[in-house]
Amino acid sequence: MHRVIGLLALALLLRSPVAAAAQDPRLEARLDSATRVQVEAVLASARDEGLPTEPLVQKALEGSSKGAAGPRIAAAVSTVLADLRRAREALGRTAGDDELVAAAAALRAGATPTMIGEMRRVAPHGAVAVPLAVFTDLVAGGMGADAAWRSVADLARKGGDDEAFLRLRDRLESSPPGASPESP
Amino acid sequence: MRSDDRSPLAEGSEDPADPVIERLVARLREPVSLSPGVERVVLERLRAEAASGAGQSEAAVPLVFRPRSRRWPALVSAVAAGLAAAFAGGVLFGRWSTRPPGDAAGVRPVEFALRTPADSAVALVGDFNDWNPGATPLRRASDGVWMVTVPLRPGRYRYTFIVDGTSWRRDPAAPRALEDDFGAPTSVITIAQR
Predict the structure, then answer these.
(1) B156 with A98: Cβ contact below 8 A
(2) Nearest CB to B182 within list A12, A14, A66
(3) What angle do CA B162, B168, B172 make, to 5 degrees?
(4) Is the pTM here over 0.80, yes or no?
(5) Which of A8, A98, A131, B61 is the most buried (most CB within 10 A)?
(6) Do residue A59 and residue B181 have CB atoms under 8 angstroms apart?
(7) Share of chain B above pLDDT 90, in %
(8) Do A108 and B179 touch (CB under 8 A)?
(9) ipTM score of the complex?
């Protein structure tokens, strides 16, 4: 009986996310040992806080592919974790991974936590991932954060679905510079 | 149960014999005498069965004593053992997952294209292929356009093209990613839920 309990405990330990993530072969193959230790420490923090780790892994792999130095990779991964923390403070603990990633990018683009919370309230079914992604895309395309936010928030209040947000972005990005944003 | 609670019948030969039981036992032990007719009929039937071999045939053996094939329990045992091994392997090596399979999670084909000289080699790297330059090469179409189709689930992905293994180019047809932490141009694509 004790042997069975011991095997079950071992199986659960090996099955745990901590053990699985700590042995991510992607990081082992692409990062030097010192950088990997730093990145895995950031991953451990994310896991402890219940935040998604895949965006952090992808950031590290992006840095590796682009030939970035180890300290720069570790710093970028830490920045992504800080963004995810801010995103969850704005959206709450029930936010999904996609929503956290989109909110983190929107915060970097100039949205405030108050704006993020407002989008949660006004977006159809509270789904914020695509509206926030479109806001970020519009800012990256050169639109001011306030104007981009007005466009996205107006469409959210009108009940636009995800496809409508993407059409809004495509239309605004193809508009001549200086044209006033307009919701459908 | 205490020893002095035992019933007389359970005490066996340790107690003095009951006279009534002794009489019954003596009666049952008396030899039974059969009539000569009965003995003859039984012996004739036994000889006949021995001559025909019917007494040794499988069909003559009562069903309850006939050897039965037990193949299905063996098969069931093998399947059960396989399932147990698969489960144990899944638990030990983390193969069980609650994540839905790719084709059942809203995956849609997304086409990426870049116009660049025809003698180039173009690869696509991004959040969807671990930024692996060897994972997603583009094929040359026409007029210097290189294309590849990638199945993607709804979400937001950063990506870029690598031309001739050295030149990083963002997608001119897609929004630029703000979070360029490593100095190379990066694009972003958002896949909406249907």
Answers:
(1) yes
(2) A66
(3) 95
(4) no
(5) A131
(6) yes
(7) 32
(8) yes
(9) 0.79
